[in-house]
Design brief:
The structure is a single chain. The protein is α+β, with helices and mostly antiparallel strands. The chain folds into 3 domains: about 70 residues, Structural Genomics Hypothetical 15.5 Kd Protein In mrcA-pckA Intergenic Region, Chain A (Roll), CATH 3.10.290.10; about 100 residues, Pseudouridine synthase (2-Layer Sandwich); about 120 residues, Pseudouridine synthase (2-Layer Sandwich). Helix content is about 20%, strand content about 25%. The protein has 7 helices and 16 strands. The strands form 3 sheets. Strands 5, 6, 7, 8, 9, 10, 13, 14, 15 and 16 form a 10-stranded mixed beta sheet that branches. Strands 1-2-4-3 form a 4-stranded antiparallel beta sheet. A hairpin with an 8-residue loop joins strand 13 and strand 14. Helix 1 packs across helix 2 and helix 6 runs antiparallel to helix 7. The longest helix is centred in the middle third of the chain and has 13 residues. The N terminus is likely disordered.
Length: about 350
């Protein structure tokens, strides 16, 4: 049997007869907990893996009886400056952190958003508790919310947690570990109280900044489940608004927003996929017009996030109330959102 011996920045793994011939990168990734295959490959390329000489090739076959030495250099600085930005922290331990993100906060630095992002805030908040994702002291982003979508996000603080969470998000709940749901105020009345939207998604040919529904086998599979929670009549039918709870079976960019626009019920306030519905504000019930007009963003909120802790295996379940702007819209529409039947208290 292989023997793994861990030191502070050094790992030794002895290959057994059953390991003969396997690719060294794949074998080491399977034998060493908390280090991804991509990280192992980078260590091999950088000369940090040896066994009877430095190993440079990822496909090098494993030889029984050899001791494989993996040196772990200190995690590199992230290249992103930490910023003191207030965070609504729902849960935090040594491995991960759950944030209730406000609308307007970008998750990751990008062109036009080099600073003032959630990543900048997390680097400042977490400091030395970031043990290194892929060898870099950075938070592990496993899923995102659009800038103007509010709600719950989980972020990894260690490589092991990043791997475990990424696997759960890759399955999108098909294995029963991950559950996510969203609340959205949308235009119009849906034809059925519950339903599924299936339409393949890809980059729009007309505007590469937008996502579009694709024809045939183009794009990627996308599936969204919805439940109608309530319907609010407008002064005319053009001003009708419905409140939906949505769950994703896949996790494509802008999936909920594009799918709802595709079936003719875009999210209220969506400037990208619902711009053509802006004139409907004139038909909204009088007491709700101001609240709807004042949103300045899509009325979409990530209300629930449940998953298995990637290290302890404990089931974690979090809920987020509607933020003030959506709460005002709900109150103006004379609605008090009911919570799921399996609700648990919000954890702190």
């Amino acid at each position: 049997m292989p023997i793994e011996k861990k030191l502070s920045s050094h790992i030794e793994v002895i290959a057994g007869p059953e390991d003969a011939g396997q690719r060294v990168d794949r074998w080491l990734a399977a034998k060493i907990d908390g280090i991804s295959r991509a990280r192992i490959q980078a260590l091999i390329r950088d000369g940090h893996v040896s066994a009877d000489g430095t190993i440079r090739e990822l496909r090098t076959p494993v030889k029984p009886g050899l001791t494989y030495n993996v040196n772990l250099p200190p995690a590199k600085e992230p290249g992103v400056v930490g910023e003191e930005i207030a965070l609504d922290i729902i849960f935090e331990d040594d491995e991960l952190i759950v944030i209730d993100k406000p609308a307007g906060l970008v998750v990751h630095p990008s062109a036009g958003h080099e600073a003032g992002t959630l990543v900048n805030a997390l680097i400042a908040h977490c400091g030395e508790s970031l043990s290194g994702i892929g060898g870099v002291k950075r938070p592990g982003i496993v899923h995102r919310l659009d800038k103007d979508t509010s709600g719950l996000l989980v972020i990894a603080k260690s490589d092991a947690a990043h791997q475990g969470l990424a696997a759960q998000f890759k399955s999108h709940g098909r294995d029963g570990r991950l559950h996510r749901s969203y609340l959205a105020f949308v235009w119009g009345r849906l034809p059925r109280p519950v339903g599924v939207i299936e339409a393949r998604l890809g980059r729009s040919r007309a505007n590469r900044l937008k996502i579009a529904v694709m024809r045939g086998e183009e794009g990627r599979e996308a599936k969204t489940h919805y439940e109608v929670l309530d319907v609010f009549a407008g002064e005319t039918s053009a001003g009708d608004i419905s409140l939906l709870r949505l769950a994703l079976e896949t996790g494509r960019t802008h999936q909920i927003r594009v799918h709802l626009a595709h079936i003719g019920h875009p999210v209220v306030g969506d400037p990208t996929y619902g711009a053509g519905f802006k004139t409907r504000l004139a038909s909204v019930r009088a007491n709700a017009k101001d609240a709807a007009a004042a949103l300045g963003r899509q009325a979409l909120h990530a209300e629930r996030l449940a998953f298995e802790h990637p290290i302890t295996g404990k089931k974690l379940n979090f809920y987020s109330k509607l933020p003030p702007d959506l709460e005002r819209l709900g109150e103006a529409l004379r609605f008090k959102p009911r919570l799921p039947t399996d609700k648990h208290p919000r954890r702190r």
